[in-house]
Amino acid sequence: MKKVISQVVKQKIRNLSVHDLLEQSREFNVPLTKSQATEIVAFLKNSNLNPLDEKDRMKALKKLAQITDPKTAQKVNKIFQEMIKENGLSHWF
């Protein structure tokens, strides 16, 4: 089942648009410029990182900190952790 969830998450990441990312950033109060969103989407689409793997998530957050800033990356990580808890997926992460 974990493999299926991983594939679904990877597919969602590959289909993420700059517009969608900017909407999500506003919803979660994470300030992003269009340029930053474009760079993040390009990174995510070209990356083969496994979102269910802790090491891969940390690599993605480090890249996010390079594109934006460490404070934004920390905020995104907190939002991600909250989403995991809210959806009852803590045991997979």
UniProtKB/TrEMBL annotation:
It comes from Pontibacillus chungwhensis BH030062. InterPro entries: DUF2624. This is tRNA methyltransferase. It holds the Pfam family DUF2624.
